[in-house]
Write a structure and sequence with these properties.
The chain has 242 residues and is an alpha/beta fold. It contains eight helices and 13 strands. 28% of the residues lie in helices and 27% in strands.
Length: 242
């Protein structure tokens, strides 16, 4: 399995902190934000990792992360995303890197307390299809909300006004290589982006989507300044990637 960290975007919700840098380079307690998703992949047993970034701060990622030796990686791969095409568009840039392998995709602003290794192992046993990672949220309307019936994930609604549950899809996804065929058939949303929710719903319609519930706490550091602070406090108190 190969890992892909998506670290593009403008980070407009974290301004003015992001007026001069990429949000994934901001500190979360004692480490830059980008460290956490990379360490999560490594602790899940993944040794081939690509970081997809963009904008004017791309060179800062190279200087900070270098070849990945600090994380115990033999080499860290990079791809550059031009513009704001959405999560699915960014993932498409990793096609030549992941080829036909299984993929673990994690958004660069996501932090998990506990190891993802058990979830990765479940996906490897699954052999094909996709798997999303769910977490409970106090404000599910801000995320993709999972609709579950009889133990099966039947639909994901993107930022619904009336959420059907408080289980939301985190920025951690597992895919087989068919994900690139799905992305190729996507149409841009009203935001002009290729949406990862559309990718996940395509797998659901094909009967090829499974889900896991996160263990421990999970944080989306890019939501707003309050979540950025809360994530730093949680890391200081409990640690991350245990």
């Amino acid at each position: 399995m190969k890992g892909v960290v998506l670290a593009g975007g403008l980070g407009t919700r974290l301004r003015p902190l992001t007026n001069i840098t990429n949000k994934h380079l901001l500190p979360i307690y004692d480490r830059p934000m980008i460290y956490y998703p990379i360490q999560a992949l490594v602790k899940a047993g993944i040794r081939e990792v690509m970081v997809v970034t963009g904008g004017t701060s791309a060179g800062d990622f190279f200087r900070l992360l270098r070849n990945g030796e600090e994380f115990g990686l033999p080499h860290l791969h990079y791809a550059y995303q031009e513009g704001e095409g959405g999560i699915a568009e960014a993932l498409r840039l990793a096609h030549s890197f992941t080829e036909d392998d299984q993929i673990c995709v994690i958004l660069g602003d996501n932090i998990v307390e506990r190891s993802l290794r058990p979830i990765a192992a479940s996906f490897e046993r699954q052999a094909e299809g996709a798997r999303v990672v769910l977490a409970r949220a106090k404000n599910p309307q801000a995320y993709g909300v999972a609709e579950i019936k009889n133990g099966k994930l039947v639909r994901i609604q993107e930022k619904p006004r009336k959420p059907k549950s408080n289980w939301i899809v985190t920025g951690i996804y597992f895919y087989d290589s068919r994900v690139y065929d799905i992305i190729a058939d996507l149409k841009p949303s009203r935001r002009g982006e290729l949406e990862i929710t559309d990718v996940n719903n395509a797998y659901i319609r094909a009967g090829a989507m499974r889900f896991s519930r996160i263990k421990g706490w999970w944080a989306d550091c890019g939501e707003d300044l309050d979540t950025l602070l809360a994530a730093a406090n949680m890391v200081a108190k409990t640690g991350a990637n245990k």
